[in-house]
Design a protein that fits this description.
Distance between the termini: 9 Å
Strand order of the largest sheet: 1-2-3-4-5-6-7-8
Structural class: alpha/beta
Mean pLDDT: 95
Number of helices: 11
Shape: globular
Bound molecules: manganese (II) ion
Helix content: 40-55%
Order of helices and strands: EHEHEHEHEHEHHEHEHHH
Largest sheet: 8 strands, parallel, barrel
Low-confidence stretches: none
Number of strands: 8
Oligomer: single chain
Radius of gyration: 17 Å
Length: 287
């Protein structure tokens, strides 16, 4: 059964106890099953408290992370790679403690603009780091590699690249994480990457071409959803949208969120939930 999720940054820019309560309650109010919590500062998450709030609202959690240049596991510098592996290990611990079954994002390198392509040594470092992460996660947590556009990473920009990278890692709990916003920039269309991934697709982000409200940009969602139904996709579909109305000091600048595309998060998320219900029938995947 496919779960429908919403990214925490639709609601809050941090994760204090108050922000946690507000975000999880709003996720339930808008009709979602899951909230995706970015682990940019995992030490600042009160894990026991968050877990209790999630349970009280019957909301599941998924976790995500984008490394930065000081923790880039695709770096040539082994000290930077070591810092990145440490960071991934810490994020995995929080994921497990929260009771989440998924950790995804740009785990294979930095989320940010590179000025050169990856080197063979850097790529090998990334493969080793992800292999270690998957081995540590083996007990019930899926690791997802999100292919993002060329301005946000230089290693994995397409589903095809993610699959080749996965082949090198060779771990059973590793999956491809696709995002319609990035696919709209880098892929030839929105259906063939889904078909190419098949059962190796583990998580999907739905985001508009401008990262605002679903259905108000140029992303061809019907093409995406038809392909997901075709492969009997049963994984999570999480709505991502960002506006300068809700700011995470780090993530918002990394993602270049300069404009206020919306200011009413509940109206935005409720409309997104309705959009998904109308266009994507989860029962089609579980049938
Ligand atoms: Mn995404």
């Amino acid at each position: 059964m496919s779960r429908l999720g919403v990214h925490a940054l639709v609601w809050v820019g941090g994760w204090s106890r108050e922000e946690c309560r507000r975000a999880v309650a709003a996720t339930a109010e808008a009709g979602f099953d899951l909230i995706e919590i970015p682990l940019l500062e995992p030490a600042r998450i009160d894990v026991d408290d968050t877990r209790a709030v999630l349970e009280a609202h019957g909301i599941a959690a998924a976790c995500s992370l984008g490394l930065d240049l000081t923790t880039d596991v695709s770096s040539d510098d082994s000290a930077v790679v070591a810092a990145g592996r440490e960071r991934l290990g810490g994020a995995l611990r929080v994921t497990r403690e929260l009771g989440a079954d998924y950790l995804g994002g740009v785990l294979h390198g930095a989320l940010g603009r590179y000025t050169a392509p990856p080197t063979p040594a850097g790529r090998a470092h990334a493969v080793e780091a992800i292999r270690e992460l998957c081995a540590t996660a083996a007990d019930g947590i899926t690791i997802g590699l999100e292919s993002v556009n060329r301005y946000e990473n230089n290693l994995l920009n397409t589903a095809e690249q993610a699959l080749r990278f996965m082949d090198e890692v060779g771990a059973p709990n590793l999956a491809v994480h696709l995002d319609s916003y990035h696919m709209n920039i880098e892929e030839e269309d929105l259906a063939s990457p889904v078909r190419t991934c098949g059962k190796r697709l583990g998580y999907v982000h739905v985001g508009e071409s401008h990262r605002g409200a679903l259905g108000t940009g140029t992303v061809r969602f019907d093409e995406l959803f038809d392909a997901l139904a075709e492969i009997d996709y049963g994984g999570t579909i999480t709505f991502e949208s960002f506006s300068s109305a809700v700011v995470d000091p780090k993530l918002s600048t990394t993602l270049c969120i300069w404009r206020e595309l919306w200011d009413d998060a509940l109206a935005l998320a409720t409309a997104a939930r309705r959009f998904l219900e109308e266009r994507w029938a989860p029962e089609a995947a579980s049938a």
